[in-house]
Design brief:
Elements lengths: L12 H12 L2 H6 L1 E7 L4 H14 L4 E7 L1 H10 L5 E4 L5 H9 L4 E10 L1 E4 L8 E3 H8 L10 H4 L9 E5 L4 H10 L11 E3 L2 H9 L4 E5 L1 H5 L6 E2 L1 E3 L9 H6 L6 E9 L6 H20 L3 E2 L2 H12 L19 H11 L2
Parallel strand pairs: 1-2, 1-3, 6-11, 7-8, 7-9
Antiparallel strand pairs: 3-12, 4-12, 4-13, 5-9, 5-10
Helix pairs in contact: 3-12, 4-5, 12-13
Length: 342
């Protein structure tokens, strides 16, 4: 799922060869070679792709922005090898990834981009699942559930004895890490008989096609497909809450609310195209984020992202724990700081 824009010029015969040789020394050729490479989270993809499209239009397509989807972990792997300019991530960078970047001499700026809400969904034909607790989800998704919790009735005696078809992001996904740490208690600990895909759009298709399906996706993929999916209210020991702008802003939709990020290579910012793209993205982030159904941060957060570059404040503010979930005090503190500007 990567956009590669090729040159519209072809070489046919001597005339074309001469034209191509001349083009190689023209200003247009220099612009055409300007490429910004982004890879990582499927959750962040809709924002990154929308930003890329707008930036390319603003630059009259003289700059190409390639947006790939390798999952958060896969994106960091490429980023720390110096293969990309920007990593998109649905979780903060982990300690092992920090170490890989350090070995390669990759210094980076961490840029909070938006707030997302991981959304548990079922097929709209499912009329009996309206809410689930974290305990219910653990019972369904923990490794020991495989071969044991197979039908809806196994999960709740009042429900039908129909086999549940599970869908989940792939192992390289930050969403997978986050969900498993929050629900099971250990990142990447999960039953292995679910249908998986790094691309959440593929998960949407699968869930929409099976009346007994259940899965979890980023909020945008639910909002864009509300005719095909039904969101499940989540309870964490209190009332069951659906993911809405109001419940995310207030902090009531827990524990599945989370910040998402861009990580920008310090070295890549020496490239004019990358620097221009980052400036453009932060100055237009609030509008674009909202247009693609995520929750934008306050304007202050985006201006501070750019100020960190000016001040050369590289690195991360997170501890790098090998977990998909933020540290215990982080979630509400970050929510308050980013949403209310406190």
């Amino acid at each position: 799922m990567q956009r590669i824009l090729s040159s519209p010029f072809a070489t046919v015969g001597f005339t074309s060869l001469v034209f191509t040789a001349a083009l190689a020394f023209s200003p247009l050729a220099v612009c055409a070679e300007a490429v910004v490479k982004i890879d990582g989270s499927s959750t962040v993809y809709p924002i990154a792709e929308a930003m890329a499209q707008e930036f390319q239009r603003a630059k009259l397509h003289e700059v190409h922005v390639n947006v790939g989807v390798s999952g958060t972990s896969g994106g960091f792997a490429k980023f720390c090898r110096g293969e990309t300019d920007i990593a998109s991530a649905s979780r903060p960078i982990l300690k092992k990834e920090m170490e890989e970047c350090a070995k390669a001499g990759i210094r980076y700026y961490e840029m909070p981009l938006a707030y997302d809400a991981l959304t548990v969904v079922v097929n709209p034909q499912n009329t009996f699942v309206k809410s689930l607790s974290i305990a219910d989800l653990r019972k369904l998704w923990e490794p020991s559930a495989q071969g044991k919790i197979n039908t809806w009735k196994d999960l709740n005696p009042a429900w039908p004895a129909e086999k549940i078809k599970l869908f989940a992001p792939g192992a390289d996904s930050g969403t997978f890490e986050y969900f498993t740490e929050v629900v099971v208690g250990t990142a990447k600990a999960s039953r292995t008989d679910a249908t998986t895909a790094e691309d959440h759009a593929v998960l949407v298709q699968g869930i929409a096609a099976d009346k007994d399906a259940l899965g979890y996706v980023a909020l945008d993929y639910y909002v864009e497909n509300q005719q095909k999916l039904k969101a499940v209210a989540i309870s964490d020991g209190k009332e069951a809450v659906l993911p809405t702008v109001a419940s995310i802003r207030s902090g009531r939709y827990q524990p599945f609310s989370r910040p998402i990020f861009l990580y920008v290579s310090e070295k890549s910012l020496d490239k004019p195209a990358v620097k221009q793209f980052v400036d453009f993205s932060m100055k237009n982030a609030a509008r674009v984020v909202e247009e693609v159904n995520y929750l934008p941060l306050p304007a202050r957060a985006y201006s501070e992202n750019l100020e960190r570059i000016t001040a050369k404040k590289v690195g991360t503010v997170y501890g790098g724990e090998d977990k998909g979930r933020l540290r215990p005090l982080d979630s509400m503190q970050i929510l308050k700081a980013l949403m209310h500007g406190s």
